[in-house]
Specification:
Layout: H1 15-23, H2 34-37, E1 42-47, E2 53-60, H3 63-82, E3 92-99, E4 108-114, E5 120-127, H4 130-142, E6 149-152, E7 155-159, E8 164-165, H5 181-197, E9 208-214, E10 219-225, H6 249-258, H7 261-281, H8 283-293, H9 301-315, H10 326-335
Antiparallel strand pairs: 1-2, 2-3, 3-4, 4-5, 5-7, 6-7, 8-9, 9-10
Helix pairs in contact: 1-8, 4-8, 5-6, 5-7, 8-10
């Protein structure tokens, strides 16, 4: 397995991407900034039920600021969920604000509670990195999953993506699940293909979740990415294929046990066909996003040169060698869906 860059730099949102976000209602005036949330005065480490460090810390704000900050955090939730209708905010409160210094986006996790029934929900506040914004938008356009996020200058707000974390799915606490391994393997193949075609890297098990849905005669699974920082950044094609990460060996082994080559190829083609249909339905939006990407810097020349050579060999398609940046490489990768 090729080594992933230890620390991907953050790329600022350029003017072309800003224009795209405005045109398609992803850009709004957020009632706080990421930097404002950094004004906490102490933290409390969070442990899991086994006493292990979760890498998250609950942050505490000064009493003089807390009421105002919490009001604005609830207002943001209202903007995401019900178009900012403040009359529906009265029964909502901020139960907790958590912070994680691990990773590129250094997220805050906001826990919102409904006082009437104690039901809770989360959303995240992060540094607005262009790679992640492109990744989120591509997920919304090209995957079977819809995702809600908003951007304001250097602040990014994302909804919570529900599911069982991939690295926990095989743990003892989830052994109550009666897993249909054939369906699980099928969905991993399709997830693997989606990531490769749209160049989403670093899909190790802790960077995706598995959504389990009861069907009338069994269960269905869907692998959903939750980390989009490595969109169009790395140079080696294997980093865009989840099958090559040792953290995903459990899912790969199931596929090897239960599927032959013809079945794998069938599922790969199914996903490519579905992606082509999604792209066609959102043609104007996809074209606008790719136009913005083609004006942007999302990686280094060395990584771009490596990737276009590897993809030219993989697809036996020399036009990759003429691509000038990651945006053009991705556009050509998606164009191949229609062939």
């Amino acid at each position: 397995m090729n080594i992933i860059s230890k620390k991907k730099p953050s790329f600022k949102i350029n003017e072309s991407l800003k224009e795209y976000l405005i045109n398609f209602n992803r850009s709004v005036k957020i009632p706080f900034t990421y930097s404002e949330l950094l004004r906490y005065f102490c933290t409390i480490p969070q442990k899991d039920k086994h006493g292990k460090d979760t890498l998250w810390e609950t942050v505490m704000f000064q009493p003089s600021e807390m009421e105002d900050i919490h009001y604005r955090l609830v207002k943001m939730y209202a903007m995401m969920k019900f178009d900012g209708n403040e009359s529906l905010m009265e029964h909502l409160l901020v139960d907790r604000v958590d912070y994680c210094a691990f990773g590129n986006s250094k997220p805050f996790r906001i826990r919102i509670v409904n006082q009437y029934n104690d039901n809770h929900d989360y959303y995240y506040v992060k540094i607005a990195d262009a790679s992640r914004v492109y990744g989120l938008e591509l997920e919304d356009l090209l995957s079977p999953n819809r995702i809600n996020f908003l951007v304001d200058d250097d602040t990014l707000v994302e909804e919570h993506i529900t599911g069982i974390p991939g690295d926990l799915f095989t743990k003892p606490e989830y052994h109550w699940l009666e897993v249909n391994e054939v369906r699980l393997a099928k969905e991993f193949v399709k997830f693997n293909e989606r990531c490769f075609v749209r160049l989403l890297g670093d899909m190790r098990a802790y960077n995706f979740v598995i959504d389990v849905t009861a069907d009338f005669d069994d269960v269905q699974y869907r692998f959903r990415a939750i980390d989009f920082d490595q969109q169009c950044y790395e140079g080696h094609k294997k980093i865009y294929l989840p099958q090559y990460f040792k953290e995903n060996k459990h899912f790969v082994d199931i596929g090897i046990k239960l599927m032959n080559l013809e079945t794998v190829q069938q599922y790969q083609q199914e996903e490519r066909t579905l992606m082509a249909k999604r792209m066609k339905r959102a043609n104007r939006r996809t074209a606008g996003l790719l136009d913005a990407m083609c004006t942007d810097t999302l990686s280094t020349p060395e990584k771009e040169n490596t990737l276009k050579k590897e993809l030219a060999t993989h697809y036996s398609h020399p036009p990759f060698l003429k691509c000038r940046n990651m945006g053009e490489i991705l556009r050509l990768s998606l164009d191949l869906l229609a062939e």
